[in-house]
Amino acid sequence: MLKVQALSKSYDSDNGSVKVIEQLDFEVARGEFVCIVGPSGAGKSTLLRCLSGLHPASGGSVVLDGKVVDAPPPQMAVVFQDYSRSLLPWLTVAANVELPLKQRIKSKPDRQAAVRRSLQAVGLVAATGMYPWQLSGGMQQRVAIARALACEPQVLVMDEPFASVDAQTRAELEDLVHELRRDLGITVLVVTHDIDESVYLGDRVIVLTHRPCRIRELIEVDLPHPRDQIITKQLPEFARLRARIADEIRKAVAGHAH
Ligand code: ADP
Question: What sign has the CA pseudo-torsion 39, 209, 25, 71?
Answer without folding.
Answer: positive
